[in-house]
Design goal:
The chain is an alpha/beta fold and 265 residues long. The protein has ten helices and ten strands. It has one domain: Rossmann fold.
């Protein structure tokens, strides 16, 4: 992965080159709508407070659990015996991005949602609460982390979440094959180029014209940047939005010319 200094330089470049936060000069009505109604929505939804209270509880939990790491690995925690609060601090999606996911789901109303990388279930909770009628499928490799996530789902009384625990090498393909269509996917489970591209190709088999695929940490490393470039330039993708820490791709055919946007966030 890039060092903190490298990421800071990349973020500074992205920020100054990105289009302004209010959407002035954006000629795509779809992207202007995204900026106005999703990215710049400053409302404090009632669900936010309850989920963030759970986040704070996890950040204060100093108990230890045994964790298997099936992804690219943690640069913060090196041992398998880990403290819950430290896992929460390093792996939970930051509030502003988790709440952005909430607003995306609330606005576009996807019915079948797939999340790769549950962690303790904070982002899952935002996805599920944003559209209670949706079916949210989330995959987590580590059994101890999945167990805590399940407890959190019960605490939040989430009725529309199904957690699948196990190595992504098998659980991801099995889940994708079992679904008729995937309206929204959030990929946050393995920050390596080839697995990310493999996930994308498998998701494509169940995509539709209204599908939204969201990839986490697209500038985390050189190989993730390479993966992002291949994804957004894939013939099936008609529009992409780069928010630096996450990237979104869309497949609507009424976008006659492929468009890529980098928006300040």
């Amino acid at each position: 992965m890039y060092s903190a200094i490298q990421l800071a330089k990349k973020y500074a470049r992205y920020y100054w080159q990105g289009q302004n936060s209010k959407g002035h000069g954006v000629h795509s009505p779809f992207v202007f709508e995204f900026i106005k109604n999703i990215k710049n929505d400053k409302k404090s939804y009632a669900d936010y407070a309850e989920i963030e209270q759970l986040r704070q509880s996890l950040l204060s939990d100093h108990s230890e659990i045994d964790v298997e790491d099936f992804g690219a690995g943690s640069t913060v925690i090196k041992t398998n015996r880990r403290v819950v609060s430290r896992i929460a601090a390093s792996s939970l999606k930051p509030r502003r991005f988790a709440q952005l996911l909430y607003r995306i789901v609330q606005f576009y109303r996807p019915q079948t949602i797939l999340e790769l990388g549950t962690s303790f279930g904070i982002s899952t909770a935002y996805l599920a609460r944003a559209n209670p009628s949706a079916s949210v499928y989330t995959l987590e490799g580590a059994a101890a982390i999945a167990m805590i996530a399940e407890q959190n789902f019960r605490q939040l009384q989430l009725q529309n979440v199904k957690l699948v625990q196990g190595s992504f090498d098998t659980t991801f393909s099995n889940l994708v094959n079992s679904l008729e269509s995937i309206d929204l996917a959030f990929i946050d489970g393995n920050h390596k180029k080839l697995p990310t591209l493999s996930y994308f190709e498998q998701l494509l088999t169940k995509s539709n014209l209204d599908s939204i695929f969201i990839f986490d940490d697209i500038h985390w490393s050189a190989e993730m940047e390479e993966a992002w470039e291949q994804i957004k330039n894939h013939p099936s993708v008609t529009l992409s939005i780069d928010l630096f820490f996450i990237g979104l791709v869309f497949f609507k055919k009424d976008f006659k010319v492929k468009q890529h946007f980098s928006l300040r966030f």
